[in-house]
Fold each of these.
Amino acid sequence: MGFVLDGPSIPTSEVKDGEITRVIPKTRQQYSEADRKKIEKGYKANKLLLCGIGAEEFNRISACESAKDIWDCLRTAHEGTEQVKESKIDMLTSQYENFQMKEGKNYS
């Protein structure tokens, strides 16, 4: 699940240029076996998400490139943004606080 939540794994290497160290993406020839496995897991996560959804959902995420992008898009579509979630919580809290038993009703 880490590949879905954390985003794609891009193998990098550190290159020192005097006192400055830069992080640059590795070329495919520089990939280690561990790098290849991480990339493969990312592709598998992508494929599982794509194969596990219907046509309507596929149209929603067809432009996404990584499993994380797909996951974020689906999550927003089904749960809403943080603002929408907070709004729902406020509304439900308000409904709960205003809940009253009707006169003459026995709920036991």
Amino acid sequence: MSTIETPNVDAAELAKFSELAHKWWDPNSEFKPLHEINPLRLGFIEQHAALAGMRVVDVGCGGGILSESMAARGAAVTGVDLAEKSLKVARLHGLESGVTVDYRCIAVEALAEEAAGSFDVVTCMEMLEHVPDPASVVAACSRLAKPGGWVFFSTISRNPKAYLQAVIGAEYVLGLLPRGTHDYARFLKPSELARMARSAGLDLIELAGMTYDPLSKQYSLNRDATVNYLMACHKELGE
């Protein structure tokens, strides 16, 4: 039985994503940016970990956009989230697409108690900036990974440029995201996330920036990690 009594979740954040759940697979909805960056996220993961035949858990999977993509590459994917409405949408879409993902409504900390060291690959994308205790999520992701396994994160850095682009620009000027999507105080600098990862027994292998060009309306990966960024970490063999 899990000893996790209080899930690491913000009720307001959960309600916000639950309200939008029916729009997860609409590529022109509030989730349009996730659809557009998904090939970049998938490519970044595959640069480090071959997904075919791997056991993968997607933490904070939402409606299953990344989960389905990894399953389509031949991975056995478990998607976990605390928004049941989002998971219902994910399950329905899986039935329509024919892509199999095991979706579970469970906190990552509770899953880590239940299935420690069970996964070759752990992904946690665009979630850390929405939870009260990101270090707890990072530690749980590490516990879920097998020794020698891979853990991938993506989130937003905390600095004036990130505030201008990810909040003012994306939410108020360009309208890429609904207003109030992000709380600037919860953004994580790469150095802060790297420290959390090291404390959890993870080695930082690669840090990549993900930027949006408003003129071409295209996202790309590069070395500029001042706003959105991805992090590839390797679980220490001795853990």
Amino acid sequence: MADERARIGMVDDHELTIRGLRDSLADHPDLDFVASAPTVAELFDATTDLDLVILDLRLRDGSSPVANVEAIRARGLDVLVLTSGEDPFLVRSAARAGVLGVVRKSQPIDAVVDAVRSAARGEMVPTIDWAAAIDGDPDLAAVDLSPQHRRLLTLYAAGETATRVASTMGISPETVNDYLGRIRLKYADAGRPAPTKTDLYKRALEDGWLPFPRRRRKS
């Protein structure tokens, strides 16, 4: 990509952050800030002709970082996370979903631009914050769930009954209970037991399968 401009898209719902990055990249002829949007779907409604998507982890629509990363990667695009970094669980989940790196918004602008340039070339952008979020908590061992198990967990942990989950997924209630037993066993084997529905909800939050509840604004 030495003789081409890398086409950059951004998913963020903070206008100040978007303007700041757009203006900063404008000073670099090898980087072309093409489009921004508050959600992944809206970005792709605007364009898919991109080389890299810069993603904020906590969006107002409450979407899961894992789902957002997977949706972007399904388009054959790389992802660089640009976040305030206040939630290590979200950083962990994004890292496991296959992003090229996680950069804090508080970093100097030159460092952010260098990270964007490296990611646009398809290079990993390792940072201390990223490594600490993934490896710093031994009690949060990874649990590998199949797509079917993951979907069931997100439905059930979000509050659906086993009967409703069975209807939504087109499987029997007995299969739902069997899958829940397997999911609980995997978490128990990882040292993260989830015997109750509330525990499963916590695990789904920790691993990024469910979005964290939005913070209420003070009136």
Amino acid sequence: MAMALQVEITHTFHASRELVFQAFTTAEHLQNWWGPKGWAFEVSEADFRSGGVFHYSQKPDDGDVMWVKFEYGEIDPPEKIVYTSYFSDEAGNVVRAPFDANWPMRILNTMTFAEDEGQTTITLITAPVSPTEEEAKTFEASHDIMREGFGSTFKELDTYLAKK
């Protein structure tokens, strides 16, 4: 895979690595901060282990429900999470992204968690899995939008962690 297709995003949280890791691996935490601000969020399935899945829906006030599913390849508490994500239907079957027919069908995500003096820096590397040429172009053209989206989501987690 071409390095240009990878997106690397880092963010530092003012919380312990254990708490930040838990925020990414428990439905009780995730339902309080994951996704775009103001969107409804519901967990359908949460099995946070290697081989497990996280299946959820999210919905903006003025739009349709979108389903997303994560399939976990590796969970190494509290250091690393590797998962493949994709848009799905309510039953969990892979479907095309509702916003772009050329969005890659599957995305591989690797998150690492490093703690230093009570702060935790996560590094997220995300890349399409076996994209077509059109999917690769769409993904590459979306790097800035992905950084903005994850940045906004991580700010939601900042706010949530400040209450813990």
